[in-house]
């Protein structure tokens, strides 16, 4: 299948949504053109590589499209922004050509949840599937990692760890068909993010980050950026709603706690705030110190996900 044929089919998938006065030139030219807007523009970029970020042995192309899109949308949301547009670049081998349409449909299904439009991109050949997305959005008040204040509480939008539990089940070819195991698998394959919940929280937040690499490593990034200490309470996780289900999916309480603290790719909103009762799980406090603490004891982060070369 030639490039022009693929592009024609993919563009037909992304030709949706209402007219947009800010989009002067859309998909199909050498570049998209946006008109001026009153709000600030927020941009984020993320890349997913076959064998590192997803595995086509157990993931469908549609699920990969949804997962990669959710990761990019979560970055814009973590800045307190409203995502509006995607630029999608895709490289793939000939063996993947018949799955490109499924991938595009997965991207579209996640984008439609927020009215996001794909307005351009690129195609290329490669030895494995590589997806790079640039997300564009608008924001009134950017929420930064550096905004945490001593005395703030630490919150997360939902209990983390299900994606890591799901990955373990998939890697071990588990035949566990319980509701907990199915939830964990889907949390890894195509996470369901509560975008409305994120949006409703923005006015309360002093800092925020997308939990892509694990609760502790991402909490430490807020601590470093803000020049404060973050003290996470283990009991707040183990006593939370859903932890029993995480234990079931993980196989033991110890594994569940490891997944909650260190497991990545949950794409939840981790934040600090001086207020309470806005629907998030309270899991700790911002303290006068530096770095990360677990129940008041300085924690060395030796787990969590980071690329290395």
List strands and helices in order, with pairings:
Layout: H1 3-13, E1 23-25, E2 33-34, E3 40-49, H2 61-78, E4 82-92, H3 100-112, E5 117-125, E6 130-139, E7 153-156, H4 162-171, H5 179-189, H6 195-201, E8 205-210, H7 215-226, E9 229-232, H8 234-238, H9 243-250, H10 253-262, E10 269-273, E11 281-287, E12 291-294, E13 297-298
Parallel strand pairs: 4-5, 9-12
Antiparallel strand pairs: 1-2, 3-6, 4-6, 7-10, 7-11, 8-10, 9-11, 12-13
Helix pairs in contact: 1-3, 2-3, 4-5, 4-10, 5-9, 9-10
Plain-language structure description:
This protein has 309 residues and is an alpha+beta fold. It has two domains: 3-139, 2-Layer Sandwich (60s Ribosomal Protein L30, Chain: A); 145-298, Alpha-Beta Complex (Phosphoribosyl-aminoimidazole Synthetase, Chain A, domain 2). It is built from ten helices and 13 strands. Helix 2 (61-78) runs parallel beside helix 3 (100-112), helix 4 crosses helix 5 and helix 9 (243-250) crosses helix 10. The chain is globular. The chain starts with a helix and ends in an 11-residue tail after the last strand. 44% of the residues are buried.
